[in-house]
Design goal:
Number of strands: 13
Order of helices and strands: EHEEHEEHHEEEHEEHEHEHEHHH
Largest sheet: 7 strands, parallel
Radius of gyration: 20 Å
């Protein structure tokens, strides 16, 4: 198949998880013999095995301008257009098959984000997500709870994790109790709150514990026992998961939360706040620990001190991670690409 993949974000220009997932799916599809073309506002990813097309949205209102630029492009020569966002203006365009993946809800983010401008921007993007779900031939959500704002979207295909890269390796666990965080210090990922809980509750009880943070917006002096890893490449990130005793991401909202699935696939127990994505990936806490932000420190202490419980969670987590295997996810998309139209509301072409 000749596939046009649309993602404003890519790992080459953004830390947003949607871009990483679009890149992973495009790479896996290309490895399976498909002719994949990526349309993005970000530059090419080094070593990418698919073709890259830069769509420059200009300096102002970039995400909205990107959607307008897409409408001007000719997708009629592709078998499938698979969008990970910004396709809400593609109604009436000639293309055999239009698939949209809904990675979360900007409405949900608008409920939690700070600042009037950013809240308005998220609300507008939320309406664009609803419109896109009506325009596409087939829309999928990455978790059942993501369907809250688009209940007519029936199909769920989770995000995928490369199990060949994110896997357990005996003997790679750190000697000292280590917690891993992947995200941002501020905003909804709440890395700063995790750092405070670590220093307030964990260090007094487990003084040799360490918090490793894959984070690029941390302060220069994050605090005692905290090591900022900055940005890691794929292999370094996989090694960080295997090194950690526990993975913790106390995000206020995740539509899915790819790091949770990467941790489970790596055999690392997960502690999370009970956001939408964490609840889904951990099977409502059966494959991980869900705790309110105020209880996070106590839960971290308990899990770091209980090797048997960590072993139990590792086993259950590895079984749960099979649901998010990238090969299985890509196979589901391949079947969807070949299926007949199932849109209920999309504009007639």
């Amino acid at each position: 198949m000749k596939i046009a993949m649309i993602s404003y974000y890519l790992p080459s220009g953004s830390k947003i998880g949607v871009g990483y997932q679009a890149h992973e799916i495009a790479s896996a599809l290309a490895a399976r013999g498909h002719d994949v073309h990526m349309f993005s506002a970000c530059p090419p990813v080094d070593g990418a095995v698919y073709e890259h097309h830069l769509v420059d949205p200009g300096p102002r209102l970039r995400t909205f301008a990107f959607a307008f630029r897409l409408r001007a492009l000719d997708f009629s020569g592709y078998d499938v257009v698979h969008a990970h966002g910004d396709d809400y203006l593609l109604w009436g365009r000639r293309m055999p098959r239009h698939v949209r993946t809904i990675h979360g809800s900007c409405f949900e983010e608008a409920l939690r984000i700070r600042g009037g401008y950013e809240r308005l921007r998220m609300l507008l993007l939320g309406f664009s997500e609803v419109l896109a779900s009506l325009v596409a031939d087939a829309s999928v959500a990455v978790s059942p709870q993501t369907r809250r704002w688009t209940p007519w979207v029936r199909r769920v295909i989770p995000n995928g994790v490369d199990a060949g890269r994110f896997r357990p390796e005996p003997g790679e666990r750190a000697q000292r109790p280590t917690i891993l965080f992947v995200g941002t210090w501020g905003n909804r990922k709440r890395g700063g709150e995790l750092a405070a809980a670590f220093q307030r509750s964990v260090l007094p009880v487990i003084p040799d514990a360490e918090l490793e943070m894959v984070c690029r917006d941390a302060p220069d002096e994050p605090g005692l026992g905290i090591r900022i890893l900055g940005r890691l490449d794929d292999q370094q990130l996989a090694a960080a998961y295997r090194r950690a005793w526990v993975f913790c991401l106390p995000s206020a909202y995740e539509g899915f939360g790819i790091p949770y699935a990467e941790a489970l696939s790596s055999g690392t127990p997960v502690i999370a706040t009970p956001n939408v994505g964490a609840r889904y990936v951990t099977d409502d806490g059966r494959a991980g620990v869900l705790a309110p932000l105020d209880d996070l420190g106590a839960e971290l202490v308990e899990l770091l001190r209980d090797a048997d419980r960590r072993d139990d969670l590792t086993g259950v987590g590895l079984e749960r991670a099979r649901s998010f295997d990238l090969d299985t996810v890509v196979e589901q998309y391949e079947r969807l690409y070949s299926a007949g139209p199932d849109r209920a509301f999309a504009a007639t072409r």
